[in-house]
Automatic annotation (TrEMBL), chain A:
Keyword terms: Kinase, mRNA processing, mRNA splicing, Receptor, Repeat, Transferase, WD repeat
Residue ranges that the Swiss-Prot or TrEMBL entry lists as coiled coil: none
SMART domains assigned to the protein according to its UniProt record, in alphabetical order: WD40
InterPro entries: WD40/YVTN_repeat-like_dom_sf, WD40_PAC1, WD40_repeat_dom_sf, WD40_rpt
Gene Ontology molecular function, alphabetical: kinase activity; RNA binding
GO terms (BP aspect): negative regulation of transforming growth factor beta receptor signaling pathway; spliceosomal snRNP assembly
WD repeat boundaries on the chain: 55-96, 96-137, 139-180, 262-294
An annotated GO cellular component: SMN complex
Lineage: Eukaryota, Metazoa, Chordata, Craniata, Vertebrata
Keyword Phosphoprotein found: no
Pfam family, one: WD40
Protein name: Serine-threonine kinase receptor-associated protein
Family: Belongs to the WD repeat STRAP family.
TrEMBL record, chain B:
Organism the protein comes from: Oryzias melastigma
Gene Ontology BP, a term: spliceosomal snRNP assembly
Protein name: Gem (nuclear organelle) associated protein 7
One cellular component (GO) term of this entry: SMN-Sm protein complex
Segment forming the signal sequence: none
Chain ranges of the SUZ-C domain: 1-25
PROSITE patterns for the chain: SUZ_C (PS51938)
InterPro entries associated with the record: SMN_gemin7, SUZ-C
Annotated region (Disordered), positions in chain: 1-21
Length: 329, 128
């Protein structure tokens, strides 16, 4: 019997959720951080969506948020012209890095020793977190606000996507531009998968996959609606995307066929990410919520419980809910 | 007719009273480095730790008593950007993120009730 996807809604934010990121898998599970226009990024347990804490301190909308691999540190980028680094176990602010304009993107290197920031001042900045008094290295070149900046190729190179409709690859040591991709419209999102060196880019209704080292196009597909974010499954068999029509789409990566679409959000989907184990994906929306979706619908994982056909209809359901109590529009 | 996947419960939402990061969670206990400077030093002995902890308790108690003594008194706040304002102190919140004050004298007028961000404050003085 076919099972219908039950998304888990994580509430708590009061404004649109614009970015989210998962940590790696730690001895305590994996974690999820969400960036919100209400200025209060939140940390959640990745497999259940349970709230762990809120990072308090930013004075403006938080546009980007990230966790380091072992989820001990968090970094956030905000409209108050600062990027902040946090101890994500205690929730304390550890560092505040002043910028000259709105900061949009933050990301740690794999060893958590350096932080890359980018934003509306069109500069990429690399901070040495073990030497915070030193001025950051700055890379200029983009002609407009930078939306996203990522480390790639084992932290030896940097990828940046900006409103000047380009994605640029930079060498970290020489700080030179290595390659540029130009598009006809602004890129809405960029995600990097180290394993396989794949870059997932979305623009307009297109979801495109590039080789992250050569910036050569691998393949593309058009979705039914403008897409704001896409994420590739760790095993590269699926990818998911969400955008302006409020739905989440699931595609097969080999055939590029649309497999499923899910309704649930009450506003455009701004970001979507697969968990590090690929068992679920999280989406953040204009409606102020995060939703967790199962990759294998019906499987027992996290808060989802697989029920065999014989158990349905039996009166042993004191502990289970048939469906999450949702208000249907 | 597809049945929705059953769920054990809904994800827990934020606690309205605190910012979270439960100090009793297994992760916190395992990972949170104690902030005692001596215990971070290699080979810290029990006595030094005790002394430091005692000093910390004394300072903390003094700070809390200071906040109590300030209630309803006129306090002058020295803040960043060379700003000095005077107000009648009300109270602080639990994490000392904000100070609630009344009759805040600012260059653009007197604010009847206000919240001052404690991270903007460098120092404050009052007459006991």
């Amino acid at each position: 019997m076919a099972m219908r996807q039950t998304p888990l809604t994580c509430s708590g934010h009061t404004r649109p959720v614009v970015d989210l990121a998962f940590s790696g898998i730690t001895p305590f599970g994996y974690f999820l951080i969400s960036a919100c226009k209400d200025g209060k990024p939140m940390l959640r347990q990745g497999d259940t969506g349970d709230w762990i804490g809120t990072f308090l301190g930013h004075k403006g909308a938080v546009w980007g948020a990230t966790l380091n691999m072992d989820a001990t540190k968090a970094a956030t980028a905000a409209a108050d012209f600062t990027a902040k680094v946090w101890d994500s176990v205690s929730g304390d602010e550890v560092l505040s890095l002043a910028h000259k304009h709105i900061v949009k993107s933050v990301t740690f290197t794999q060893d958590s020793n350096h932080l890359l920031t980018a934003g509306n001042d069109k500069l990429l900045r690399i901070y040495d977190l073990s030497n915070t008094d030193a001025a950051p290295q700055e890379i200029a070149g983009h002609g407009a606000a930078i939306k996203k900046a990522l480390w790639c190729n084992n932290d030896k190179q940097i990828l940046s996507a900006a409103d000047d409709k380009t994605i640029r690859l930079w060498d970290r040591t020489s700080m030179d531009e290595v390659k540029t991709l130009t598009f006809d419209t602004t890129v809405s999102s960029m995600e990097y998968m180290a394993d396989g060196e794949i870059l997932v880019i979305t623009y307009g209704k297109t979801i495109a996959f590039y080789n992250a080292l050569s910036l050569e196009l691998i393949k593309t597909v058009e979705a039914p609606a403008p897409i704001n974010s896409a994420s590739l499954h760790p095993e590269k068999d699926f990818f998911v995307a969400g955008g302006e029509d409020f739905k989440l789409y699931k595609f097969d990566y080999s055939t590029m066929e649309e497999l499923e679409s899910y309704k649930g959000h009450f506003g455009p989907v701004h970001c979507v990410r697969f968990s590090p184990d690929g068992e679920l994906y999280a989406s953040g929306s204009e409606d102020g919520t995060l939703r967790l979706w199962q990759t294998a619908v019906g499987k027992t994982y996290g808060l989802w419980k697989c029920v065999l056909p014989e158990d349905l209809g039996a009166d042993n359901s004191e502990q289970m809910y048939g469906s999450t109590p949702e208000i249907k529009a | 007719m597809a049945t929705p996947v059953p769920v054990l419960r809904l994800p827990k939402g934020p606690d309205l009273n605190s910012r979270g990061f439960d100090p009793n969670s297994p992760r916190y206990i395992a990972l949170c480095r104690t902030t005692l400077a001596t215990s971070e030093a290699a080979g810290a002995d029990g006595e030094e730790l005790q002394q430091e902890q005692h000093a910390r308790s004394v300072l903390r108690e003094r700070f809390l008593r200071c906040l109590l003594a300030m209630t309803n008194k006129k306090v002058r706040f020295n803040m960043h950007e060379n700003v000095t304002v005077e107000a009648t102190f009300g109270s602080s919140d639990i994490d000392v993120l904000n100070f609630q004050v009344s009759d805040l004298h600012t260059p653009i007028g007197v604010q009847k009730e206000a919240l001052i961000r404690s991270q903007d404050v460098i120092s404050f003085t009052f007459d006991a």
